[in-house]
UniProtKB/TrEMBL annotation:
Source organism of this protein record: Olea europaea subsp. europaea
UniProt keyword annotations, A-Z: Glycoprotein, Glycosyltransferase, Membrane, Transferase, Transmembrane, Transmembrane helix
Transmembrane feature ranges: 33-58
Compartment(s): Membrane
GO molecular function, one term: glycosyltransferase activity
Gene Ontology CC: membrane
UniProt cross-references to InterPro entries, sorted A to Z: BC10-like (IPR044174), Glyco_trans_14 (IPR003406)
Name of this chain's protein: Glycosyl transferase
């Protein structure tokens, strides 16, 4: 045994004499160890006996929860309804799109909520990099914390650094690269919807970009959206090359020419329609395969699909103000020179529209689209003129 231990010592440090001396000195250790173990055993058994006695005693005194709480793990799953209604505390997760969409498509079958639910608006920002209008939005959101949530989908290479005081702090969702006019853009929008659906209090879903501004204060926006019987997405049947001309016959029978719709991608949708988009597997492959490049899938996919499935739920107009020049495929971009006092007057005039089947002059809650060079003067003017 001695040589055995010695050889282990020599294997470890190559010093046989040293190993020998250590064997000499460790000989009394087993005895010491034994007595220590014995003492330990006695203490443990005494402790368990004592605690048993104590718990019995305490049970009589009705303070058992104190004892119980001491042996529970630090991180605890709530065992109440809270577990199902509390929004995720971190937006970052490792779910794949298919895992996320599956999870986001859970819908309760009982329509009445067994708790007090304050419906929120999910403001979803589809951006490339920074959000230059964040100071304006921060002012817009301030004081309404219970009524909104924010989600940002940006280029995965972009790492935002919002101050902790900003409403945008920590609101980035796991993102992937998107390309304008391609299905990857719709994928980004579906990802935003799916992440926002994980919070059961989100009832309305607004898609915005870094070049969007609010035109009205939060109270007006909330009231307008929450009292509307319809969801707001531009969806119209346009003849000509930029409308029906983008339809591909291979999409039938799922989509035929008369059902083909066009509209800007900047929508406001109810929770029901958000789930419909996230769970769609009928129209998605058709659009992915047959609406490519100059088809601009983001101007047709949701617009056409929702018009087929739920035409009675759509206002067929967007809440986001843009100027569509005639005979041009895309909306106009405003530059630095366009931003002045008159600009805001011009936006608020507009032509009348319908709201819950009644005529109204308040048609737009947001505006775009602004060139990067115009954002600084825009921020300055809007802080001044919008008054919130
Ligand atoms: C929002 O704007 C409306 C109209 O401009 C105004 O009457 C209302 O007081 C504003 N609400 C808040 C909370 O500032
Ligand atoms: C388009 O599809 C609808 C329903 O699927 C059908 O009723 C209609 O006849 C179709 N229209 C054409 C032009 O094929
Ligand atoms: C929107 O358009 C659909 C047809 O695509 C129609 O059925 C629906 O009534 C329209 N909505 C409103 C509010 O007019």
């Amino acid at each position: 045994m001695q040589s055995g231990v010695g050889s282990v010592g020599s294997l470890e440090d190559g010093k046989v004499p040293y190993a020998r001396t250590t064997i000499q000195s460790t000989r009394p250790l087993p005895l010491r160890l034994l007595s220590f173990l014995l003492l330990f055993l006695v203490v443990v058994s005494m402790y368990s006996f004592l605690s048993l006695y104590m718990s019995l005693f305490l049970k009589i005194q009705n303070v058992i929860p104190v004892v119980q709480s001491r042996i529970q793990p630090c991180v605890q799953e709530p065992r109440t309804l809270e577990k199902w209604i509390r929004p995720p505390s971190y937006l970052i997760h490792t779910m794949t799109d298919s895992e996320l969409f599956w999870r986001a498509s859970f819908v309760p079958r009982i329509k009445e909520y067994p708790f007090k639910r304050t419906p929120k608006i999910a403001f979803m920002f589809l951006t490339r990099g920074p959000l230059p209008m964040a100071p304006l939005w921060d002012k817009f959101f301030k004081g309404n914390e219970k009524l909104y949530s924010i989600y940002i989908h940006s280029s995965p290479s972009y790492h935002p650094d919002f101050p902790t005081s900003s409403a945008f702090y920590g609101r980035q969702i796991p993102s992937q690269d998107t390309e304008w006019g391609m299905m990857s853009l719709c994928d980004g929008e579906r990802r935003l919807l799916a992440n926002a659906l994980l919070d059961i209090s989100n009832e309305w879903f607004v898609l915005l970009s870094e070049a969007c501004i609010p035109l009205k204060n939060f109270s007006i926006v909330y009231e307008y959206i929450s009292r509307s019987r319809f969801s707001f997405i531009g969806a119209f049947d346009e003849p000509g090359q930029y409308g029906r001309g983008r339809y591909n016959e291979k999409m039938s029978p799922e989509v035929n020419l008369t059902e083909w719709r066009k509209g800007s991608q900047w929508f406001e949708l109810s929770r029901k329609l958000a789930v419909d988009i996230v769970q769609d597997s009928v129209y998605y492959p058709k659009f992915k395969q047959f609406c490519r490049a100059l088809c601009y899938v983001d101007e047709h996919y949701f617009q056409t699909m929702l018009s087929i499935q739920s035409p009675h739920l759509l206002a067929n107009r967007s809440l986001t103000w843009v100027v569509w020049p005639r005979h041009k495929p895309h909306p106009a971009t405003f530059g630095k020179a366009d931003i002045n006092e008159n600009f805001f007057k011009k936006i608020s005039e507009g032509k009348p529209c319908t709201y819950n089947n009644q005529l109204t002059s308040l048609c737009f809650l947001f505006a775009r689209k602004f060139a990067p060079s115009s954002l600084e003067p825009l921020l300055e003017h809007s802080l001044e003129y919008l008054g919130f």
